[in-house]
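It is worth pausing here to work through a concrete case rather than discussing structure prediction in the abstract. The textbook approach is simple: state the sequence, then state the predicted structure, then interpret. We follow exactly that order.
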Amino acid sequence: MTRPITAGVDGSEESLAALAWAGREAERRGLPLRLVHAWRFEVHDAFDAGDRDTQRQWVRDGLAEAARTVADGHPDVTVTTDVVEDGAVDALLAAAAESEMLVLGSRGQGALVGFLLGSVGQQVITGARRPVVLVRAGDEPSAEAAGREIVVGQHGAPEDSAGALRFAFETAAARGATVRAVRAWTLPPVFAYSPGSLKLLDEAGGLEPYERKALAAALQPWRERFPDVPVVEHVEMGSAGQVLLTAAERPQLMVVGRRARRTAVGARIGSVAHGMLHHAGCPVAVVPHT
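Step two, the predicted structure:
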């Protein structure tokens, strides 16, 4: 079964930017596109909002118009629409589970910084088992021009970043883009060293060569699977978030992994993903660890 690319659409400028991004990506990947609008009937005392059937028809009409717009620009893409009478988080999580990826819009904080992530976006990213792409209002197709890299973060063992690397390579293959794989490292406390880790570091020739070998090992299966995708290996000492943000001058997409964790105050998506969503100047794909 072919999974579609799904875009959450609510008529806002942000969601229409996400829809445009999703339409281009669906065309590149040869995938169907699904438009989802989460809706619940509401009664307004201040004005006549119509009955349930009237409101549902308004929503369907708006979604149909959005579908016609994207279909006109991408005639080879199969576009379907779905009005879901449910809360936004539950509807989007259900849609994501059936999709190749979920694409959402987000309000930008300005020309030089990234996203304002509301509670819906936070909960969807935390709970989704498929990649979620955040696109700001004002995102332009020109941002995907040749020469602009796809930046992906890699950390830990090869399996820790396999999902993010796969998404980055698949996207780069569809776009004819270069992948810049970034691995950040810091000096650990001396007491964290064990005899076994010291032996590995000695064999690798030191900390930075060890990190370079670890990155190369993580990339090897994806280089073999996507031999035509150019790859830049980027190893730098520093905090992961800062290194990722400065790794490329003008990336066309940032890809990060996330391992959601539960705390007393709710779910967290991790500091690196959180930093990218708040400071990246391009669309950000958040890929759950598999």
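Step three, interpretation. The domain at 150-288 is CATH 3.40.50.620 (Rossmann fold). The first helix runs from residue 13 to 29.
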